Amino acid sequence: MRFISVIAIKEIRTYFASPMAYVVSAAFLAITGFFFVASVSDAFAEASIRGYLAGAIFFMIFMSPALTMRLIAEEQKLGTLELLLTSPLREFEIVFGKFIAAFVTTMVMIALSMYFVIVLFVYGDPDVGPLLSGLLGLSLYAAATLAVGLFASSLSSNQIVGLVVGSGILTALTIIDFISARVTGLASEILDAFQLGASFSVFDLDSFGVAEGGHFADFARGIISLTDIAYYSSITAVFLLLTVLVLEARRWR
Amino acid sequence: MIKIEHMSKNYGPYPAVIDISFEVLKGEIVGFLGPNGAGKTTTMRVVTGFTPPTSGDVTVGGYDVVSHSLDVRRHIGYLPETVPLYLDMSVTDYLTYMGEIRGMNASWVKERLPKVIDMVRLGEYQNTLVGRLSKGYRQRTGIAQAILHEPDVLVMDEPTIGIDPIQVVETRELISDLGENHTMLLSSHILPEVSAICKRVLVINDGRIVADDKPDDLSEKLQHAERIEVSVRGVESPAFIDAMRDISAVVDARSDQRASVLQKAQRENFSPFIVDARPNVQAAEQIAKKIVDNGWGLSNLTPLPMTLEEIFLELTTEENLGE
Fold this sequence. Notes:
The complex is a heterodimer.
Chain A: H1 2-17, H2 19-40, H3 50-78, H4 80-85, H5 91-112, H6 115-123, H7 128-154, H8 159-174, H9 176-180, H10 185-193, H11 217-221, H12 226-252
Chain B: E1 2-11, E2 14-24, E3 29-33, H1 40-47, E4 55-60, E5 63-64, H2 69-74, E6 76-79, H3 91-101, H4 106-119, H5 135-147, E7 153-157, H6 165-179, E8 183-188, H7 191-197, E9 200-205, E10 208-213, H8 215-221, E11 226-233, H9 237-246, E12 250-255, H10 259-268, E13 271-277, H11 283-293, E14 297-304, H12 308-322
Parallel strand pairs in B: 3-8, 3-9, 6-7, 7-8
Antiparallel strand pairs in B: 1-2, 1-4, 4-5, 9-10, 11-13, 11-14, 12-13
């Protein structure tokens, strides 16, 4: 456990010592701010963070891999991975430490965007249920996307490859409903079960939607379902495990 | 401390190291010598637990590198060939972090860090970002991380590669000092370096160990050719070379092409030659007699000691011929 925190603290310091955290936070706040404002600006608009959530999960498809692309790729490029792997550390400690750093950084961004909630309470009377479930869903969603991004970063020493592969996997899981709509029966159901949550209907000014069949829909609505929690937790666990395996495989090459 | 028994390592179908065995005793400084691609780095990576051997047994301090990898790694300080540094951290932050991931606690780091910084003479740069340091200072930072956690065994892969000559000398001194209380395996493809620092040399070529000896003994053992520098006046080169080749003790003769020698020869008007002869047959006497008999002027006749470079070439080319 101590090694995990040593690595996490180092990575968090690196995030905030470089422009990375600030640039990504600024972009995150600007984009989610736009969706939030647009979704509550109509007359008789619902006092909810639905627009914010839809914008946030869509943006994370690109933001999470951008945050994680450096984490392992750069260690390979600098040769410092050789040092980590010849220190008395286990691979999972390296992977967890880095994952936690990226997760904490994302949570800081989400915390910064919480003034939207304060605005809602000042000017309206939001329903607390969907608000809390939405934020829980957002945290789980962030963890899943960061795990995918971290896995992508472990594949090569090139950060851009990490970004493209990470965003590619997340985009594929997002547009999977385009494919499931074109097949029927069991195949369609299985494909639907993998829908990540974001939807291009976020750009629809009337709904600012999330994918209806996806795992985020219930969280946005105020429902906490075990299936959805299990889905995001599984994605997180599977991709973290794959990352550990990629690092272990490096030894056996 | 380090014991390697019949270790082989393949990368896919390509063998990098083939059935090598050797032992490094506690307190020994062993130089690992070989051309690029000979298998030095691979062997070191196996010893440090970075990569497992394909076959054979490797133990460090009695721990197997595969089954007790974590124990092995706790006892080793490692400086890889490309010095692994986080360029955006200060020297102090970097070393503190390296100490922590080696399992040192905060108070130990606090007590040990100033000593190590002093030892590698990084004092005035301790708050500089690693990315701003010159190559020589980066190397010292790399050495500092390897010795910080007081490991029993130090493994250094080409520690003086790519730094300027003055810093090379300083780095060598530093490594020699470290050798006084560490077991050390040090690789290099530069011979004077190894003979200056190490008391024992392992020569590796094409994945096999081709010699294991003290630098001096290595020199002696391999002197199966005697090299003699000869300078003469009043004879054309081809005639002289032919005359030398007629002597039974002589293996070969050629003009000496070294710039420094040629300059002096031109100034003093003689022709310089190098003659290789069989050892222990009084070749020098025969050469001198031949020159005098022919009525040429003999101005210099000096047996040359073989340098480690030549021994090294000899060893490795012989190995190639044998295959």
